[in-house]
């Protein structure tokens, strides 16, 4: 007689329950970018990877004073439910700032929890599975993700040093019949490039001719190093009604506060509010009223001028340190504002493959391939110059130069 | 020769540009509920419509102290980018509270901007167009919207005074093969009903047998009037791994701060973080650290005990005032916690049609039809008892009684 032990069937191992995952997120449990940011966060690494403001430049005392003001004078309201459209004071302040470039009323503003939520709200409101979105090549990858999880297909449009090429845009519209075009005209992420006024007019002409709407993302436009202002494409004749213009306080005041807004006109404003309500009901009322108070009572322009003065020095430090260490034939951009510089090393280089050695040498960047909807330039890298002092930037760039030399 | 004026074609009127709207939001530019809330917000109306906490009960001084603490001691971090998963201190506090009922680690927590975003994140992660979601009949309508915009079809399951009927749930699962089941077991919205322990066990048995995941929404569970605690269904054997348990600080501390969390286990935690990042990058770091500080340094239990004592008096006032004015054959629920009471007047009544007269008499409620996925009880209404004092409640209920009598 077999023993009870041998006769009993082996205990079926407990199969853990697995949640079904929607196709839009299948295979996205981890990402190479997340791993890069984890590496870049090591204390022994100087990171050019993220677009992370230097926290020592935050207007902390002013912001704390505004939180205190709101909680002391409007506490019960700040802690209560608010409006999906956003709190009126903040919409008024947003409209006032936007009106420098484009007449805007508070009714044309929808508040979002940072411009990432703004992009997601816009995608919710507009996109169907299978829609094509035309993007700059390269473009901002988190926007691509917000569109992609709505089933959109991204098609990259060729760019030069002045941004998207009007002829290429025209051809792509005729070929792909896109639902919308997504552009970052000023101090673009990842390249740092800016579209001159003439190019903006050419692009607007193409969009108007084909009646295609635009999402114009402008989180960096006020970070100008020479004080010049670049009016949004939305401000060109005929464009305001067909553009969702996205703004953010993350790069001007604080990313941790998570406040941005969308400017729009017409019935789409209602849809944006309904989508926002479905996604997150409303943005933090405490944060909204605090940002409104900050814009009303403090001098954001003076703060931005002080910060961009420091950013300009850091851009100079990074550009200056990179010039002698880049291989012959490499290209780097010359950003007049914003946070990013873009380097393309040339065909012999693979920026992703080189990253492990760079991190071992104590310096990190973001490989550029991830910013392309298609046909990535694998030799490219995005380097943020805003986080570190010129001394730290120069030392780290020197170490990066040695790694590049080894890979040449 | 015709004059130049008559020969020229009439100027084509400028056709305003119309943004394309995704099918998921088509026709949702306005909603009857939004109109109701606008009416209910009139200063001459006592509103039972919204689940709006009485702002005089907010722990304003404590919360302001926590904002001040965070900005003074951790200001640079609070204003900086954070983690999509949520800040560690807050996840630890959330885990500590949940562990009273269900052992939970900080790694099992995902922070969201209120539980509306939690529901949306879960829908993003799990739902495909055409999926069926089983819901209580009636159920919380904003959850239904978060599911519906992902293309899901809601099927209502019959309930009694103890919540969803296990046999009906079993039949519905076999008939509809749902992707998930959505339940609010404790002090349900809209009915105020609570599932007893035995019913929870029967429901868990059905879900385990069919291997169907559960979204368990628990924003009200701690608002108990007799101090009794209701352990979540997620705490029953086998259920924690197949449940997304949703919690919110909106009803316990402040809805304006917009902080909630999801408890989950296993690989779905990664998908939830990726979805959260696509939707809004991360929740306000200032608000997260402030809520963490509040949970660490203040006595939320004592605050909740004080608030629920007042809510209980208000429930008594509303239930007591309604009893004599409801028609024969009407049913009202007897909630032991939460914010809502549910009245079903009987076939002769249409709560939507009656609302205009009620508002004219200075009292508002939410017609119940909107809480049904199908087969609405049009005579039903949801009444929140938390916003007003007993005196105000009694006076308004008296006026409502006159309106009901006119419609009988």
TrEMBL record, chains A, B:
GO terms for molecular function: transaminase activity. Its cofactor is pyridoxal 5'-phosphate. It comes from the Bacteria. InterPro entries: Aminotransferase_I/II_large, Class-I_PLP-dep_aminotransf, PyrdxlP-dep_Trfase, PyrdxlP-dep_Trfase_major, PyrdxlP-dep_Trfase_small. It holds the Pfam family Aminotran_1_2. SUPFAM superfamilies: PLP-dependent transferases. Keywords: Aminotransferase, Pyridoxal phosphate, Transferase. Residues 73-400 form the Aminotransferase class I/classII large domain. PANTHER family: AMINOTRANSFERASE, KYNURENINE_ALPHA-AMINOADIPATE AMINOTRANSFERASE, MITOCHONDRIAL. This is PLP-dependent aminotransferase family protein. It comes from Brachybacterium equifaecis.
């Amino acid at each position: 007689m077999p023993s009870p032990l041998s006769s009993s069937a082996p205990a079926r191992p407990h199969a853990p329950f697995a949640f079904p995952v929607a196709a839009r997120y299948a295979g996205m449990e981890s990402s190479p970018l997340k791993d890069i940011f984890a590496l870049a966060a090591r204390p022994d690494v100087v990171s050019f990877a993220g677009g992370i403001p230097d926290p020592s430049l935050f207007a902390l005392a002013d912001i704390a004073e505004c939180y205190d003001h709101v909680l002391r004078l409007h506490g019960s309201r700040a802690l209560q439910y608010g409006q999906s459209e956003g709190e009126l004071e903040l919409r008024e302040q947003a409209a006032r700032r936007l009106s420098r470039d484009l007449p805007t009323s508070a009714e044309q503003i929808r508040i979002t929890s940072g411009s990432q939520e703004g992009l997601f709200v816009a995608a919710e409101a507009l996109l169907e599975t299978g829609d094509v979105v035309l993007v700059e090549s390269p473009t901002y990858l988190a926007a691509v993700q917000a569109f992609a999880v709505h089933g959109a297909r991204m098609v990259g449009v060729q760019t030069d040093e002045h941004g998207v090429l009007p002829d290429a845009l025209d051809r792509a519209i005729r070929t792909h019949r896109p639902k919308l075009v997504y552009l970052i005209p000023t101090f673009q992420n990842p390249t740092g490039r800016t579209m001159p006024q003439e190019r903006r007019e050419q692009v607007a002409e193409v969009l108007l001719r084909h009646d295609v709407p635009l999402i114009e993302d402008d989180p960096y436009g006020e970070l100008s190093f020479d004080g010049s202002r670049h009016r949004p494409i939305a401000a060109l004749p005929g464009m305001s009604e067909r553009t969702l213009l996205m703004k953010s306080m993350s790069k001007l005041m604080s990313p941790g506060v998570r406040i941005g807004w969308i400017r729009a006109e017409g019935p789409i404003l209602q849809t944006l509010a309904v989508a926002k309500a479905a996604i997150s009901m409303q943005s933090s009322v405490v944060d909204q009223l605090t940002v409104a108070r900050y814009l009303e009572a403090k001098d954001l322009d003076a703060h931005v001028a002080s910060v961009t003065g420091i950013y300009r020095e850091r851009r100079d430090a990074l550009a200056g340190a990179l010039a002698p260490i880049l291989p012959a034939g490499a290209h780097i951009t010359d950003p007049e504002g914003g946070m990013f510089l873009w380097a393309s090393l040339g065909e012999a280089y693979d920026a992703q493959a080189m990253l492990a050695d760079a991190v071992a040498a104590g310096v990190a960047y973001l490989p550029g391939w991830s910013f392309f909807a298609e046909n990535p330039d694998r030799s490219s890298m995005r380097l943020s110059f805003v986080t570190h002092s010129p001394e730290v930037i120069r030392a780290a760039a020197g170490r990066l130069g040695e790694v590049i030399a080894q890979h040449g």
